[in-house]
């Protein structure tokens, strides 16, 4: 060694710095959006203490969508929709949008068929959850995963 | 002002389940977007949609920013009697639109 940095030392240091930077960037990039935990909290607010069981609801979403600004969504519930037994409400939640709530639909025996459809925005590839409330007070849920190529909400405005 | 499109079958048999499609023009500004200067664009959305059938509420919806622009809502109801279906959308900045459709039931 003659006081100059050898190639080996240089590579060691450079590698260490690069690894450090990589780690730091992983830590600092925190998405400014809701988390699955916030979705659970939003669901708890709607459901109260009741138990949500899987089944009875069918959430129809395309598995992959190009544009997250308008994603077709259909929720169907198995129910006779009579005065005694009907769907009271259908709620839709997302995991990673800035807000977990998407929409709440209020139905009744006059609906005839428990089926609603709309178009929603999705900020990322994520799980979407639909929860229905029946007239007997029970809650049922279904979830669907979707891959979004172009996210909504994040593009710049005018 | 905003314009709404409503698709209700003009005639139906008594007891038949009819599908209703509604579409209204509205930007549904989320309140999460920013201008290029970094200022937040204020939220401007439709918060509530209600459908009444001869004065009785048969369907309603609470909407959030995650509903796509120009909200499109499809639902169904039982054709009980001839009459009028009234649809109303209300939202931020005093937004309020009411439309109606006639149905004749034999």
Topology:
The complex is a heterodimer of chains A (158) and B (106).
Chain A (H helix, E strand, L loop, with lengths): L6 H22 L7 H12 L4 E3 L2 E4 L3 E4 L3 E7 L9 E8 L6 E6 L8 E6 L5 E9 L4 E12 L8
Parallel strand pairs in A: 1-9, 3-9
Antiparallel strand pairs in A: 2-4, 4-7, 5-6, 5-8, 8-9
Chain B lengths: L3 E4 L3 E2 L4 E8 L21 E8 L2 E8 L8 E7 L4 E9 L3 E11 L1
Parallel strand pairs in B: 2-8
Antiparallel strand pairs in B: 1-3, 3-6, 4-5, 4-7, 7-8
**Unreliable stretches covering 5 or more consecutive residues of chain B:** none
Query: How many DSSP-defined strands of chain B?
Result: 8
Q: Reading side by side through the largest sheet of chain B, how are the strands ordered?
A: 2-8-7-4-5
Name the poorly predicted regions of chain A.
23-31
Question: What is the percent of helical residues of chain B?
Answer: under 10%
Work out the radius of gyration of chain A: 23 Å
- The helix/strand order of chain A is HHEEEEEEEEE
Strand content of chain B: over 45%
Q: Helix count of chain B?
A: 0
Q: Could you explain how this protein is built, in words?
A:
The complex is a heterodimer of chains A (158) and B (106). In chain A, 22% of the residues lie in helices and 37% in strands. Chain A has 158 residues and is α+β, with helices and mostly antiparallel strands. Chain A has 2 domains: 1-30; 36-150, Immunoglobulin-like (Sandwich). In chain A, strands 1, 3, 5, 6, 8 and 9 form a 6-stranded mixed beta sheet that branches. In chain B, 0% of the residues lie in helices and 54% in strands. Chain B has a single domain (4-105), classed as Immunoglobulin-like (Sandwich). A 5-stranded mixed beta sheet of chain B has the order 2-8-7-4-5, with no helix packed on it. In chain B, strands 1-3-6 form a 3-stranded antiparallel beta sheet, with no helix packed on it. Chain B is an all-beta fold and 106 residues long. Classes of the chains: A alpha+beta (158), B mainly beta (106). Chains A and B meet through strand 6 and strand 7 of A and strand 5 and strand 6 of B.
């Amino acid at each position: 060694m003659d006081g100059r940095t050898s190639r080996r030392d240089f590579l060691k240091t450079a590698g260490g710095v690069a690894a450090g930077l990589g780690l730091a960037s992983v830590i600092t990039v925190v998405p400014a959006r809701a988390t699955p935990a916030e979705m659970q909290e939003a669901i708890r607010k709607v459901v109260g203490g009741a138990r949500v069981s899987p089944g009875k609801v069918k959430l129809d979403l395309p598995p992959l969508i190009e544009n997250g600004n308008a994603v077709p969504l259909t929720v169907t519930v198995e129910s006779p929709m009579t005065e005694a037994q009907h769907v009271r409400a259908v709620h839709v939640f997302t995991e990673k949008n800035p807000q977990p709530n998407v929409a709440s639909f209020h139905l009744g025996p006059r609906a005839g068929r428990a089926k609603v459809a709309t178009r929603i925005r999705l900020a990322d590839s994520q799980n979407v959850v639909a929860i229905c409330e029946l007239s007997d007070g029970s809650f049922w849920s279904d979830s669907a995963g979707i891959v979004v190529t172009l996210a909504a909400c994040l593009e710049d405005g005018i | 002002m905003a314009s709404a499109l409503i698709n209700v079958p003009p005639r139906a048999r008594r007891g038949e389940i009819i599908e209703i499609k509604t579409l209204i023009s509205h930007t549904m500004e989320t309140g999460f977007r920013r201008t290029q200067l970094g200022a937040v664009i204020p939220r401007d959305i439709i918060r509530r949609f209600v459908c009444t059938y001869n004065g009785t509420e048969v369907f309603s919806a609470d909407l959030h920013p995650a509903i796509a622009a120009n909200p499109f809502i499809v639902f169904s109801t039982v054709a009980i009697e001839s009459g009028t279906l009234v649809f109303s959308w209300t939202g931020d900045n005093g937004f309020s639109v009411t439309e109606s459709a006639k149905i004749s039931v034999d």
